[in-house]
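A student in our group prepared the protein record below, which I am reviewing. I have pasted the whole thing underneath without changing anything:
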Amino acid sequence: MPRLQANRIEKIAADLLHGAGAPAEEAAIVARHSVAANLAGHDSHGIIQIPTYIGRIEQGHIVPGAPIEIVSETATTTVVDGNWGFGYVVSEEAMKRTIAKADAHNVAAATVYRQGHVGRVADYPLMAAEQGMIGLMTADSGRGPKAVAPFGGRVARLGTNPISIAVPSDLEGPLYFDMATAAAAGGKIRLARAREQQVPPGWLIDAEGRATTDPAALDEGGALLPLGADVGFKGTALSVMVEILSALLTGLGFGVEPTGRHNDGCFIAVFKVAAFRDLVTFKREVSEFAQYLKETPLAEGFSEVFYPGELEHLRRVERLRDGVDVEDATWARLLALGEKYGVHLAA
């Protein structure tokens, strides 16, 4: 696998997207978010996604330069129609608006629909945390293709339906979580397939409902399992609530539309910490709480306790220094796109 510095990968992504018809500013936003996922160690949402986005542009499923439409709003709420633009661009704008409204009115929320893949959901709540606020975001593929079987089922009926919350602190790395309500994000299955690897037991079932570790099963009628293994009813319940916030509250609906068009729906909420507590005190106490957790006596087989988001921070430091590995299958697809759009991709 070629190993590239993050700025090189970001330029490759931006140049390819721009070559495929995305305005330069939008291409830069998508590239920045994608590489941030690689740096955090979530390669399933990184550069591997760029060929998929370009394919959706070519299909007309993503509309570069689409206007972001404010359908309705109040002092504390916003309903956003992305008009099939890049999810990164639309959701970043929606979060900026929600942060501004929370800054003025302490609490604010937004719904977003008709947009492309939003990538790593944590990127948006982290925007709020950087402004001294608590950010929350849920996401669903609306009526796009489903990947997750509800607990007890063998056919996909739910999206991977991620949820993320980020809080401000004085820690070196931000404190947040970002998780699929399935056993794994769908992108991790595609990543394993691209790297010709098996997935851990408990992630997948095949078309007959039998446990499997073969990532190809997902594209052959199989399904991801909900979070929670033998208590997967908990993951299913959480997924259902995420879908209600992100798909029903936004008006996308449930099920799968015949076109298969990917359509991320999102619910965003922002809370101004200073409306509830002194911000400086709150940030200090969050940091002290994280340290309290890290000082927990260790269970057998463990070398350290990490606060939520710490591992991603450590990976970011490491990968900014050492570079990011790009699997051969993804690199080959990028090279082919470079030839198609006249973009030079020397490793």
Remarks:
- The chain is about 40% helix and 15% strand.
- The longest helix spans residues 87-105.
- The mean pLDDT is 94.
- The radius of gyration is 20 Å.
